[in-house]
């Protein structure tokens, strides 16, 4: 089993139209990056594959059901945790179907360039988003 098979979680750069869907993290001292602007995703459960994990987490956190075919990019990173990052593009109209799950305080749509320069963005997500946009 390769190192990328042993992963802790997943994240998704989900574009609705031209804008990136972000979720403001809860203000809890026991979680990483409290209050910061996150993207859908989370921890692996019960031996899930990366694809199963990202699809489940996205549905739990945003109410949006994606199919494997919606995922257009993936890359494994091992710092600061072992995580797969994915990207998907859906029509802007799907924003009407977003329902915030039980994590996070609000969801926002923003241009990728705005996210990358936003002081509340999770810092290492900036370089991962840049990697996707430059691929």
TrEMBL record:
Keyword annotations from UniProtKB, A to Z: Hydrolase
Keyword Hydrolase: yes
GO terms, molecular function: hydrolase activity
Record keyword rRNA-binding present: no
One Pfam family it belongs to: NUDIX
Domain Nudix hydrolase: 5-135
Protein name: NUDIX domain-containing protein
Naturally occurring in which organism (per UniProt): Roseovarius gahaiensis
């Amino acid at each position: 089993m390769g190192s990328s098979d042993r992963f802790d979680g997943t994240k998704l750069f989900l574009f609705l139209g031209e804008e990136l869907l972000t979720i403001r993290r809860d203000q809890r001292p026991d979680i990483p990056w409290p209050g910061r602007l996150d993207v859908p995703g989370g921890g692996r459960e019960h031996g899930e594959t990366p694809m199963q994990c990202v699809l489940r987490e996205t549905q739990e956190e945003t109410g949006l059901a994606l199919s494997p075919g919606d995922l257009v990019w993936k890359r494994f990173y091992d710092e600061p945790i072992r995580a797969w990052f994915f990207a998907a593009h859906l029509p802007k109209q799907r924003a009407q179907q977003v329902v915030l799950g039980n994590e996070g305080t609000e969801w926002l749509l923003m241009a990728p360039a705005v996210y990358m320069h936003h002081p509340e963005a999770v810092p290492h997500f900036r370089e991962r988003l840049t990697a996707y946009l430059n691929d």
